[in-house]
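Recall that a protein's primary structure is simply its ordered list of amino acids. Everything else, from secondary elements to tertiary packing, is in principle encoded there. The following example makes that idea concrete.
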Amino acid sequence: MSQTPLTQLGPLSVADFLQGYWQREAIFLPATLPDFRSPLTPEELAGLALEEEVESRLITHSDESPWQLENGPFAESRFLSLPSQPWTLLIQAVDQLIPDVHQLLQKFRFIPSWRLDDIMVSYAPTGGSVGPHFDYYDVFLLQGAGKREWQIGQQCDSNSPTLEGTPLNILKEFKAQQRFTAGPGDIVYIPPGTAHWGTALDDDCITYSIGFRAPSVADIFDDLSQDIASRLSNDQRYRDAQPLGFTNPGEIDTTSLKQLRQLIEEQLSDQALSSWFGRYMTTPKYPELCPDPEAIEIAQMQTWIDSERWAQQAPEARFSYLEQGDSARLFVNGEEYSCSPSFARTLCNRTAYCLAELSDPAERHLLLELFSLQQLELCDEADG
């Protein structure tokens, strides 16, 4: 599968889609990937659900017990005793497990790669569904096999009523406004907050959900404040501005509040904020899927770097960068490195590159470190 980002989404150019629909309105995008065929079978998905490090879920539904959730890993016997009522199996981060699915993720790099999250793959026999719900992030729902009916509903938020008696956030009310039937290669785009409800129409239904990172403001403040606090010493404390006299000892005056704001703003320099953000947005969501650093002989890695071999980002690695004049900051899996802008652009904007292009002595140590951490890996030129 080509790793070139899409330029056309069904009837729309990517530019028209971004201008008219992205984070605004749901849309059905037929035949976006007309030749796409699921690289996974239902049996292979069930096999992944047996693995300890893989996040998997099983959702069953009946009138007596609506939308019940079981978390994996599962025993093989569980799949031999599935109920007759509809069910759905969901596997997270399949792009980090299956190379062909990782290549699929590259098709959506018309959105900044630091916004891409992971690909969840679901299988359901006829009638299987996860119920009417909404997400807080954008998602492209690519049909990989079989057919699925999608109903698009109303806009929702945290105040939208949900059903009791289930651990899932199933909407109590769903008002269908659009209906689509998706076959292999069709995509349904759902923006944040839009209710949707997918139901398998046959026993071959496999759907690939390409999701995007959208941290809550609460999570941003929580992580940022911890990052700032970790860099401060106990000597740094609040101090009063030059007092002019306190006539009302119980009052918190505006001068004190201004002093407090200045103290906070001093810790929010552009340098500090961008450094934190780069590390935060490249931190792996599933670190347990990242391989341990490998003891590769330095001489062997040096041979790779001096050769015409090709390399690419490892499936588990997240790369982003920030340019600052003649230098750049490279962010990989939550760590920060200094390098040249050209080096950062090559590593982050391209899916594969000849190592001879990156043989600048100034970047040699960094290349060796990325290889030893298995964040870069060798590949065939054809993969690029």
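The two ends are 11 Å apart (CA to CA). The longest helix spans residues 217-230.
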